[in-house]
Amino acid sequence: MKHVTVAAAILIKDGKVFSAQRKDFGEMAKRWEFPGGKLEEGESGEAAIVREIKEELDTDIRVIKYLSTVEYQYKTFSITMSGYLCEILAGDLVLSEHLCAKWLGKDELYSVPWADADIPLVQAIEGMLV
Ligand SMILES: Nc1nc2c([nH]c(=O)n2[C@H]2C[C@H](O)[C@@H](COP(=O)(O)OP(=O)(O)OP(=O)(O)O)O2)c(=O)[nH]1
After folding, report:
1. Domain map of the chain by residue range?
2. Ligand 1: which of 5, 33, 69 to mutate, judged by most atoms within 8 Å of the beta carbon?
3. 2-128: which CATH topology?
4. 74 vs 79, 83, 86, 114, 117, CA distance in Å?
5. Per-residue pLDDT tens for 19-72?
6. Which of 81, 102, 119, 121 best tests ligand 1's pocket when mutated (most atoms within 8 Å of CB)?
7. Complex ipTM > 0.85
8. Which of 28, 35, 48, 105 has the fewest other C-beta atoms within 10 Å?
9. Is the dihedral of CA 69, 89, 38, 118 positive or negative?
């Protein structure tokens, strides 16, 4: 079974968290996720998340703190995903790899179909939203 190690950015602004919709492809088609991606060989989670957000969203970020790691078994692969609370240094989160994105407040947090693996992280940040 394929295993992927992923870093995910939790970006919170004005009490809302940034969530983006995956393209219509693969097991996670059209699910909503925290932006990020797979770690490269020998790369730290912190370095991966900064690189991925630059690549995917043309935005410079900084890691504020590591939050937690989720293990999840999908039908076709397993995932280890670490979430990092991050802040934007420069850039406008320009979508290049997602269908669309939303800033979700506490009341809207579960209004999008999240990727299954994300649910524990979503629950973990609920208290940071307004
Ligand atoms: N980025 C991200 N991926 C997630 C989340 N939840 C979740 O199950 N995944 C899964 C979907 C993908 O199978 C995998 C991450 O792959 P990806 O396609 O985003 O990563 P990548 O940019 O490095 O991929 P690639 O273009 O090199 O194939 O993790 C999440 O919140 N964020």
Report:
1. 2-128
2. 33
3. Nucleoside Triphosphate Pyrophosphohydrolase (3.90.79)
4. 8, 18, 26, 14, 8
5. 999 999 999 999 999 999 999 999 999 999 999 999 999 999 999 999 999 999
6. 81
7. yes
8. 105
9. positive
